[in-house]
Amino acid sequence: MRRVAVTQFKFDPPNTSPSTPWTSEFQDARVTIELGTSPRLVGGTTFSTKSAIDQNQVKLLIQAAVHSIEETRKLLMKWRRQGQSLSDIYLYGITESAKAIGELWFDDKLDFLNITIALSHLHQIMEELSPEFLAEGHPGSKELSLLLMAEPGSQHGLGLFMLSEFFRQAGWRVTLAMPQDMAEFKRIFLSDWFDAAVLSLPTDRYIDSVAKAVAELRKATTNPHLKLYVGGPMAHISPELLNWPGTVLLYTDARQTVRLVTQAMDVSQHEPVQISRNTRSRSCVEELGQINTM
Fold it and tell me: ∠ CA 89-93-94 to the nearest 5 degrees?
């Protein structure tokens, strides 16, 4: 199984204590991370079994992720010992940290280097925890096939990788693709039989190109009953730009997305299918670059 490449960075552990604001040691200017309140995350700085992961915990995870992979690992293991499931850590710890990191960048409080360091550490930790995370699930026996694909040239695959883990945990066979250009995007889309496809659009750079390609590719795909979904940051920023015929727009988190897509497949399985899934073509899947077949 081929894995998405993750650049690793190592820095000395921080000298700051969890009770003090964190200051970046990797920039000329002193930068203090300040997070706003979130209605989804409530609680104190520490938590007991089954309590929520709050904004203070999110801040600690950002600190750890920027400083070193060791500090990131240490903090998440502490959360595990305190009773947090990996699913909750992913959804309310890592996801919220990634969102906050993006906000810090937009506010010029964190530079691109430190963003890359932090997201790489979070990604690497999820790869390390993958066997344990998958063991938490209750996979079904449907053996459904899913394509998860980012827009061409996407730089960060943290969110898409997390989504792939939730689908794998639910028993899906997942192909995770990070195409470099539109030509590769089209090749991957037609490379195999997929029961469903989820396209992630973090920016508006390729919206028109992807929309045009999807309209053409849906007619050429091996599975004429392919369920097609569109999501990513642009689904929240400009959903009106993703209102494409034959697609479903996703606003949901990873766990809810898996539930929604799986339920749609349960319904469609009662509909007549004229083409056998045995006609799948797998000849060129392993030869395509930047694909992670789960």
Answer: 95
The dotted CATH code for 145-293 is: 3.40.50.280
Q: Answer for the pair 179, 294: CB distance below 8 angstroms, yes or no.
A: no
97 pLDDT exceeds 70?
A: yes
Tens of pLDDT, residue by residue over 260-284, are: 999 998 776 545 444 334 333 333 3
What does the DSSP assignment read for 223-283? -TT-EEEEESTHHHH-GGGG--TT-EE--S-HHHHHHHHHHHHHHHTTS---S-GGG---T
- Over residues 26-39, the pLDDT tens digits come to 333 334 454 443 33
Closest CA to 151 of 176, 123, 179, 175: 179
| pLDDT at position 15 over 50 | no
Amino acid code (one letter) for 202? P
Can you give the pLDDT at residue 180?
Answer: 94
What tokens were used for 79? 């959360």
Which residues belong to CATH 3.40.50.280 in the chain? 145-293
Q: What CA dihedral angle connects 214, 216, 221 and 223, to 10 degrees?
A: 80
Contacts of 138 (CB under 8 A, 6+ apart): 170
What is the residue whose two structure tokens read 């066997």?
Answer: 131
